[in-house]
Every structure is written in structure tokens, then in C-alpha cells.
Amino acid sequence: xxxxADRPIDFSRIPHPAPVPxxxxxxxxxxxxxxxxxxxxxxxxxxxxGRGWHSATLGPRQPLSLDPATAVLHYAQEIFEGMKAYKxxxxxxxxxxxxxxxxxxxxxxxxxxxxxxxxxxFVEAVRQLVLADKDWFPTVEGGSLYLRPFMFASEAFxxxxxxxxxxxxxxxxxxxxxxxxxxxxxxxxxxxxxxRAAPGGTGAAxxxxxxxxxxxxxxxxxxxxxxxxxxxxxVERKWVEELGGMNLFFAFxxxxxxxxxxxxxxxxxxxxxxxxxxxxxxxxxxREERYSIDQWRADAESGRLLETxxxxxAAVVTPVGRVAGHDGEFTIGSGGAGQVxxxxxxxxxxxxxxxxxDKHGWVMxxx
Length: 367
Ligand SMILES: *Cc1c(COP(=O)(O)O)cnc(C)c1O
Description:
This protein has 367 residues and is an alpha+beta fold.
């Protein structure tokens, strides 16, 4: 569907009549954890067939009132994004490649038969919310303001077809350093029973439904004592795809780096794409190439594979230390963070935090 707004969206601004008192807020942002604490405001924009986007508001964060027949509650027509606002070293607030999130949001909207939100409106909505809630940046080292833009079918109708009304919202949540002390390696479970995405399905869209379907395999991994689940392709049950919410990279002893290609069943991560660029600049031989579970084990055992890491906005870059499945388990390298993992993580974080030069124009300063 095409962009419906041909003029910039004006936001009505309704300040929160009773924001969280400073002392409680300060306590909340001292150790916020992840996804538990929310800021005072939210952005809301409505879409109605024939009218397009309207009623853009930056207002108090408050509960929604939904008719029980609201389409999203029945058919899961919902998409979202996950991004972070950072305080740079000099105190400036910044977003990391927000236009990429805006673009991916519309790609997800296409797959879920939802209207496009103009990219400028998406970025402006996020920007307005961060500025309104600038006092909510965590005070902990490595903290950030996690932003959750999302859109859902808000029409009250039980027929099965694309809805004629949608709501776009952005909420914000102070987030601590995902890993408090260093970057521990995670152990992952290879799901033999469940897949995440099939060809022609919704694997490349960031939609809530993908996550709903990943909860059982993730719970199985947790029950077996692992941190994360890794999914294989749905056709041959052989090719390594990704974790429930993070992409994967494999680093070899000949200086090469592999990540699975974007074939439609993998979520095109912005962290993944940024790391591909940084790795090329580091002189690594980077290939987007299928990699099988059997090869993964063989290469880990022969020592050819030195490192594996997962990446995504929330945890940035996370080493994978151990892999287990129905056929037993193997360790990667020393079982901890290797050199390539550490170097790429440090380079990306330094750019995101305004410590290293932003040669790519990835950092959008907000004030
Ligand atoms: C969001 C997401 C990622 C990571 O994407 P980033 O843009 O790097 O945060 C990877 N896999 C899945 C399934 C995701 O939903």
C-alpha cells in the first residue's frame, strides 16, 4: 500500500497532567532492567481508510480502550520495531539509523497488509517522544532509552480481511546495560521440533505473531538450561537461520565471516547490516552464505570455526559459547567471547555512543 499522507503530520501535544514524581523516576532509572519501566508519554497516530493518517498526538502514556472485537485481538495483524536512543559522550541524545527502522516497518506493513507510515512521520514520532521524556534516560553505565514503535489493526470487525483502521503508537522504556558485567557467552539450544519461519511466511517481517510462535521453543530451551533457541530452516531442517530475536555470525580461522543470507525467512537486522559493513572495513572476508548445523559442529570440533555471535538492538553483540541439540552438544572456541566478536562489538558501541567517528552517518543527533 502506498503512503497516504502527502503533507507533514502535525502532532498535538498534551503534557502529562501528573508525571511520575522526580524521586520515583530517579529510583526507576537507576536500575531499570529491561521492559519493565515506562516513561510518562506516548505517541499515537490513527489511520482510517479513505482518510489516511490523522490525530497524531504526543500525550500522556495511558491504557487503551479496545472493543472486544478489535481485529488485532483475533487475527494478530500487528507489527513493531525495536530501537534505542542513546546519550552520547557529550550529553547529546541520539538515535542509531532510525530511517532503517522506518523503512523496515513499512516492509513489515506490506507483508501484514497494513498501510505505510511515511518514514519522516515514523522518525519524527520517535524523536518527539525522546525529547518529551528526556529525563528518563537511565543513569546506569551503558543504559539507553528503548523505543517500541508498533501498529495494530484497531477496527472492530471479525471478518477476515485487512482492517480499515489502524493505530500507530510509540512507547519508551529506560533500559539498563543488557549485561551488567562484561559480555557473558550464551548457550543455545537447536530446536529440532519447531521452526520459526517457512518460505513464503512472515519470517522477514517484524510481527508479534512470529514471537508468539517462538515462545514454546524458547521455553523448551530454557527448561533444558539454555539461554536461547536457534532455529533451522523449515524445508530441509539443516540450515542455521537465527535466534528468536537475534541474527547469527560465524568467524573462521582464515579471517572469514559468514552470516546466513536474507532469503525471506530471516529478519533483516539493522545490527546485522551494520556489522557486515564494519567487518568489511576491518578487512574480514564477509560472506552471506547458508551454513548447516552439521558443518557448524564439524568446524567447531576441528577448530576451523573460532567464534559465533548473535546480534540485535537489545543486546548488541553476544558471544555464543555452547550449542546443544538432540544429537549432543559442542563448544565454540574457548566458550567465551573471541577477538572478532569483541572487536566488532566495541567498534559498533563506540559509534553508537559517539566515541568513535561516525563515518557512515548512522547517528542522528536529536537536539
Ligand atoms: C528485531 C530482530 C532481530 C534484530 O534486528 P535489529 O534491527 O538488529 O535489532 C533479529 N531477529 C529477529 C527475529 C528480530 O525480531
